[in-house]
Design goal:
Two copies of one chain form a homodimer.
Chain A (H helix, E strand, L loop, with lengths): L1 E2 L1 E4 L15 H14 L3 E5 L5 H10 L8 E7 L11 H8 L4 E7 L2 H8 L3 H17 L3 E7 L1 H7 L1 H13 L4 E6 L6 H14 L5 E5 L6 H10 L4 E4 L13 H10 L5 E2 L9 H11 L17 E2 L2 H9 L17 E2 L7 H10 L9 H15 L8 H12 L8 E12 L7 E10 L2 E9 L2 H14 L9 E9 L13 E8 L4 E8 L2 H30 L1
Parallel strand pairs in A: 1-10, 2-3, 2-9, 3-4, 4-5, 5-6, 6-7, 7-8, 8-9, 11-12
Antiparallel strand pairs in A: 13-14, 14-15, 16-17, 17-18
Helix pairs in contact in A: 1-2, 1-11, 5-7, 6-7, 8-9, 12-13, 16-17
Chain lengths: 539, 539
Amino acid sequence: MHDIIIYDTTLRDGNQAEDVNLSLEDKIKITLKLDELGIAYIEGGWPGASPVDTAFFKEIATCGLKTARIAAFGSTHHPTNSAANDKTLAALIASNASTLTIVGKSAEVHVREALRVTPDRYLDVVGDSVSCLKRAGREVIFDAEHFFDGFADNPDFSLAVLKKALEAGADVLVLCDTNGGTLPQDVAKAVRRIREYLPGTTLGIHSHNDCELAVATSLAAVEAGAVMVQGSVNGIGERCGNANLCSLIPILELKSGGAYRCLPEGRLTLLCGVSNYVAEVANMAPFSRQPFVGRSAFAHKGGIHVSAVNRNATLYEHIPPSTVGNEQRVLLTELAGRGNIVSMARRFGFHLDKDEPVVKGLLSELKDKASHGYDYAAAEASVELLLLRKLGRRGVRDFFHLIRFRVLESKQHNDARPLSEATVTLAVEGATEHTAAFGDGPVNALDSALRKALSGFYPRLQEMRLIDFKVRVLAATDQYKGTGSLVRVLIESADQRSKWVTVGVSCNIIEASWQALIDSVTYKLYKDENENCTKKLDG
Amino acid sequence: MHDIIIYDTTLRDGNQAEDVNLSLEDKIKITLKLDELGIAYIEGGWPGASPVDTAFFKEIATCGLKTARIAAFGSTHHPTNSAANDKTLAALIASNASTLTIVGKSAEVHVREALRVTPDRYLDVVGDSVSCLKRAGREVIFDAEHFFDGFADNPDFSLAVLKKALEAGADVLVLCDTNGGTLPQDVAKAVRRIREYLPGTTLGIHSHNDCELAVATSLAAVEAGAVMVQGSVNGIGERCGNANLCSLIPILELKSGGAYRCLPEGRLTLLCGVSNYVAEVANMAPFSRQPFVGRSAFAHKGGIHVSAVNRNATLYEHIPPSTVGNEQRVLLTELAGRGNIVSMARRFGFHLDKDEPVVKGLLSELKDKASHGYDYAAAEASVELLLLRKLGRRGVRDFFHLIRFRVLESKQHNDARPLSEATVTLAVEGATEHTAAFGDGPVNALDSALRKALSGFYPRLQEMRLIDFKVRVLAATDQYKGTGSLVRVLIESADQRSKWVTVGVSCNIIEASWQALIDSVTYKLYKDENENCTKKLDG
């Protein structure tokens, strides 16, 4: 087994993604998390390029990292300067990072067209830049930009750049597929060629995902002998992103027959948590289909799959989800079979047999509602309530009855804000409660009135917040079309301990929202009562 | 150059993605679009498994596709049946699709554990199933499920399954990496082995993306001799999805040095449009970092990149974006922004100069509204009205003024249908019109009342229909959250001659719908008046 050196660039190349903009605090948080995971190198940014990046290196030095090394990123010196009087190199040294990574051009056309100097002059720039940083006593990583494009075009120049950097003292040479256009077999060929040309050199790979091949090209480079892999958490980065460490690390650790190790023993189970944490801090919606760590990565929807997974999970799972900290989920849809019902019930704590009549009844009710647009795969709390009611379990009583609601929306003149008011009359615990509320829109007014009416009876409802509200207009049918189309509402709610999603469907958005709202409130009340019962039973 | 046969499974395996649930209309729309793109095979679904899938094959037969072949999907017959009395095979034949694709197990452990029959019995099942479909005169594609896992474990059985299917008459054998856990080099090895074992057979590949390698394994299979590639638009599918055709097709066509062709000449530029269209119909947020077709795929953010790209785009772009119908985007500067306004105005028939003050005013108004969620890229009729008003052009007068609207929504008891009623008071052509209407939901009631109030004055409004109504809840902010989140409404309207889309944004869905509705009606009235003027001038 040999170690693959993981070099994370989430904070630098990742931050160049279109929708990412990390603050100093974000960068520190992510660094601490990556250190916990056991990432070897963390590239913090480009000192001098922005105040956040400059401040990062000062701040992180005080954080007492456990094992991660911090790298500062920059470039070879400007061709019109000397190394000694170049601001970029000076800022790198001033960052006090023990590892300095500089990007240098290794494609002749870039030297001529972007830098507008001769190849010979640029070789001196490379040598002088590396020497200057080495004289400052630092580890130096040389990122050879556009290496593969350059190597395909004029291999002599690209190899000369690598040789120059190595002779000047670079500790690692990293081959960059900067534009992300290179295929895996071409990456492998180039890596093998360099190992012949510069035997014994420590080589790294830096891939971009413009062909959806960044993971594949990184693996091809490792197979050909590269030992450092640069990438980012969740694959974020410039344009289509960088090689995704959340995929590369588990592939290398779990699928090499024990040939490679990337993280300290026992850390791989933290991966899913790190992925979610970075998405959260960067304020990005997690990508549900993301391999290994995504919410859907081990979610089974097709009926055949589900019945097989119930027998033996390995039949439809390429690894046990828990090895990367993820979990199996079985989804319920129109495509579902009785197996879906059984495994869903098991998750809610009920043991049902596939042949019990209640299973068949539940399946046909769920399929019928699914065909009318109820998205039970997303709204697990609504499914749980349906199941509990069908099984006649104690605990899901009707906590309240609707007597009447009215919502009044009015607007005067085009430029005025409309006014939304709702009244609700409920029968609750033997009493009749009649109240009213205004709101930001009709659904918000109804939501406020409902909670107002119930809060005196069920004070723990105040713990509950609505954290997401989604509306989808379902495809129009002959019966429902245009502004009268069927609408599906999904509401995600949370209290201190958990989150749950409920659903409603109607051609009337207020009615659809009402269904999802009352499921959400009922679920909270049921959960609280049930918790109390369990506590009593446990006690 | 040889042809790679593209087999699209967006409607079947794609529909098994967690957040996808295609209706019959959605499936028909997507099929027509894929036919335009020139996809060779389109797998429509599993006849008999759901009413939508069964109806699809009837409906699509009447649509007059240009070149695409429709495939129906199913499985080998149930081991307790014979082929002749099996419902699945009967439903496949009854679908009347000219191509029938059946999945069969090709891993011994699945036969024993999921099906619970002996390997020998299952070989008979495979042979009988294929023969039965061939006797019905159809092309048969055999999807060998879990092929690579089975081949690694017990290659003899996996090869025997393939041989049996081939001898029974299967036209194509497709090797499935069902769990998505196989690495590219192992796929290549297996494909080469089968080509030795069954020379001359037409082989296909069906990959899943559980290791973020579905594109890479598909390419490896093609390099090793597979000629059919199964995948989906945007890579949607069960768990982490299928091989992404939006990446595979351009890689094969653009990066093989002319070795492969997937689409008819000239169609590749449609790819980006097809990707967006499918995301739209499936109601999925497009993935901005998606290779080739994503919004960020050719977006340049890093300072070095932008300055180099302005000199020579190929320096930081692996292909010209236009080859796949995408475009370069550079972080919006004020200058680039004014250019956008000028070119937009030109599209609506106005010649503006970049330095006119009105351009600057329009730019800042559009940027401001866009930052509040107005999606002007989608709602061009709303942009055109804004532009016309700002330019003070004749024709966009205010055809009516709102004096007041009220919408009353009421519901009695949980099981009753709610009642929606709207009243509208308008000042129109010097008169005051006050009327009321019921509707399917509050927006529909308001829509009906508005048209009722106007129809006496503008009879041509009766030509206008609302053909689509979309609602998206925008990300919650500190100010707007939960049921009070900002909501964007897009309304598509049509008359005999054209279609137009308008937009409204508010935390109140009725207000947002009202904005989009009045823009829609105003646009129709403006269009009609303008047409009359033009006719008079022409005459």
